[in-house]
Amino acid sequence: MKHxxxxxxxxxxxxxxxxxxxxxxxxxxxxxxxxxxxxxxxAGLVRARAAAEAGQAQAGYTLSQTLVPGINSIIGxxxxxxxxxxxxxxxxxxxxxxxxxxxxxSMNGLAGTTSSGTVGGVTYTSRITFSxxxxxxxxxxxxxxxxxxDYVVASSGxxxxxxxxxxxxxxxxxxxxxxxxxxxxxxxxDGGSVQGNFFGTGMNYDGPVHINQNWMFAGTPIFSxxxxxxxxxxxxxNCNTSTWQAVTTQSNNCxxxxxxxxxxxxxxxxxxxxxxxxxQARAALGLDATNTTSPNTSARxxxxxxxxxxxxxxxxxxxxxxxxxxxxxxAAVTLSxxxxxxxxxxxxVQGSTTSVLKADPLTGVTTITKNGGAATTLSTPLxxxxxxxxxxxxxxxxxxxxxxxNPLPSNNGVPTQIPPAIATSTRLNIAAAxxxxxxxxxxxxxxxxxxxxxxxxxxxLAGTGNLRVGTTAPNDVxxxxxxxxxxxxxxxxxxxxxxxxxxxxxxxxxSLAEDTDPPRGLANIGSNGLITMVNGFGDAxxxxxxxxxxxxxxxxxxxxTTFAANTALPVQRSWVEQ
Amino acid sequence: xxxxxxxxxxxxxxxxxxxxxxxxMAAAVALVIFTVLINLLSGTGTVQARNxxxxxxxxxxxxxxxxxxxxxRQSVGPRVILSTSPGLPTGLASYASSSSALSVVQxxxxxxxxxxxxxxxxxxxxFSGVTSTALNASVSTCGATYGGGDYAMLTTETSxxxxxxxxxxxxxxxxxxxxxxxxxxxxxxxYTPAAVVGKVNVLRYAVQTVxxxxxxxxxxFGGPVQTVAYDITALSVxxxxxxxxxTATPVQPRAIRLTLTGSRAxxxxxxxxxxxxTVYMRDVQYTAPGN
Lengths: 578, 291
Fold this sequence. Notes:
A: alpha/beta; nine-stranded mixed beta sheet; 4 helices; globular; B: alpha+beta; four-stranded antiparallel beta sheet
């Protein structure tokens, strides 16, 4: 008997079922894959364009944030020649027209003009190209010149087969201005070597230092950012001969300054201490501060609301309309911070009269009281200038609240025992016709060494005199601000520096511009070159990082005659993507 | 002996075959299964066809929006043609943007030519009634950049003005500089070396009927109408001056919201889709006239 076939039927059914399922799946997948490919293509293009825009943004950062130092490195030679020739910036180009093509060539070689990177796995490359360097002749005046240059940024982003290009075009407006004197940590016309002054062990400078002439070294002073001099040689102590020797080297025998890896540069262009670009007296009086002539008695009397025929300005504290604080006669000035709103307080003592001014930065209201009497409100806010027609016999902040710690804070910190003198939003210029005597700590509420956004800034200008650290100033005195003592033979000095006990160091955070650097302490030089301080103060000078590019300049602050780019602002005019 | 043989040759059991009833039942079940599968297959095919239709509409709308967005991102000056733009040449008035049409203003970077200091500068910086502009470009460059009757925009750092180039003899000069004449456009401005003149390109988007089909079109001023995508039935444009409040009334925009509706038919099937995108203007400081 034959066997019947009974099992193939299920197999055929299953196969047919699978074929149909495969057909259905294929149909569905086809639609889905098309959609996915469509979306993927769109996403790829978007990512490529985003990367190209990232490259364009990187170039924008270069243009807006890093161009100023680059430009200054290019135009420095022209600026120095211009200053040396004594040309008039109102009529003569700081950058000669004949050098425009050379400047352009240098700008196109600046670091940062090409960049590349990756954003989310997508690569980009960008390049900045400059062209058409030109001047804005109408902008030329005694203090500024403006130049323009066109730029093109070409940026590409690519992910696999997806490539997008973004090209932008615009111009950069560069404003050249006179370099503010606070561009140097220490800038002196004369290093004082003729008077026996030298820079030695225990002196620490963490910003740019420039001395035109007569500079002398012993031991191991520290210049973290190097130093420059206009002289062709300096003097360094030789322990073998116990003499000061003129050298053109970086060290000599036992004298081994630490140049911070940068070095001492000789024969650099002379940086003159200019005549004051502003009249701080006029500024305080509410007059035109750019008129640098000294206001006569009649003008002062008129500005102060006195009779224009007055023969002299009576001793006192004045707050003229649209001006600052004008003080006739010697005065002691104490600065402090008070509530509300971190108000700036000025306590001014003249004889038996004590005037207290309190400026609220939030409301803009300033009140004044005399000898504890009723407060009166000023009609206009203070303009940031405090001027003393006389000597500031004592300048200080609040008294210390305790003994300073040992060791002192590092990284330019201020001991907590020293209350701030300059309020967060205060921008102040204190000028005296003669000397300013510092008798206490004067520090910022916001320390710019640790707070890059700090706004408070102070200038101390000694007119025909010195900025003196007085005999009652505390040991390890802290002084924040930009100091100028530019009269012939004047500088930042210490009263009785060669007597009494060793007083630690003067801890500055700011800058010092002076005509002649005087001794601030007395030191013995051992036969092995070891420096031992015996009297007075050492230097612990620290640079305010905001002063590097002039981003924080006190009001009515003097400038040098050397021009440099202060700002470079890019303006974007077109945007093309392909 | 036979007994043993009988055991070895006993016949198999009669259970291996199917009865007719069983075969019919199996066939019936298979028929049902195959019917269901065929219906499923047919349904999938229908869905697939509808999907393809929708994908094609989606593709048309997305690519159209991307093209419009790309043009908008490259816009400068007033960004779009506004009927209220001060000094708008009469020839451009018909190109004014609306809630259903968009006219994008572009100035190609290659056409930006620096303006040379006018006579009297720097003593004088303010100039009025200017009908010809000296350019830092050769006459051949001027001629290659501009055509008779072209529209242009002069911009300084603080202001801009519409220009219309003369119909003839509009570029004169030499190999280093040239003068562009725009007699019908008298402008006043404060000169700075940042001043430039650029050629204005206007790109107008609108929905029109082309070959009997509702179509999104793009037309460069003075040029032919280009087809961007067929079967686009509506364009809606909303303008935002601040970047987050949108209105149908044209204003100088910081952002623009574009909405396209497409509808496509294939046989008895129809697919409709509406998509929107918001385009934020790029940071370009090319002042609009009147600002």
